[in-house]
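Morning!

As promised:
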Amino acid sequence: MSVKLVFLGKLADLAGLPEMTVEAPLDWVSLVEGLEAGLAEAIEGDKVRLALNGTVLADKRTLDAGEGDEVALLPPVSGG
Amino acid sequence: MARQVELLDAPFNPGSYVGPFTNAHPGLGGVCTFVGEVRSDDDVEALELSHYAPLTLAGMEALADEALGRFDLMGILIVHRVGEMQPGEPIVLVSACARHRRAAIQAVDFAMDHLKSDAWFWKRERRGGVWTWIEPREEDHADLARWRETPEKV
């Protein structure tokens, strides 16, 4: 078991894949440290938000994900 | 009040939704429908909309509820495509029916402004075989700002 990361929009292109799994537990610092440099820099930008199990975090730096959780990395939406 | 919200990953016929939606509201005074299609811009070959299931549909349902609360409607219908689309294909359908026209017209305008700028979709287009992500547009955010003040319910 682990934490599932889901990359949306152009973050999926940067990551080179739509999803990956990382070790639990996962907080903001370990998330950023675990990603390749270009991707880490992109998600540190103010406009990228995180959702934990379908709920958008008001402050992504409070991320606290455990076994089986899903973390979505959400760049700014371009609308429908 | 009826609320119908759908996310589709295959082409759809707007008329096949609007007919039954209208028939389901006998006694309505007006029905307003907007259909958005993939524009045939220059050399755009395809448009792809991606979404995040846990957020996108729930967000559209919340938007429909907000419109029902804000305007005096009998019902609202929101249908949105995801996946790859060709120019000329419908992307979005919003229809509202009401006792009086203004509520229906404004509800559709309100829902479209929110779908265009504030819904959980990511869009990219293919030109000359190359995919490019579409960034948020300032105009869309300005359109959204029109609805910040809360007017009297119409």
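Residues 3-74 of chain A form a domain with the Ubiquitin-like (UB roll) fold (CATH 3.10.20.30).

Hope this helps with the figure draft.
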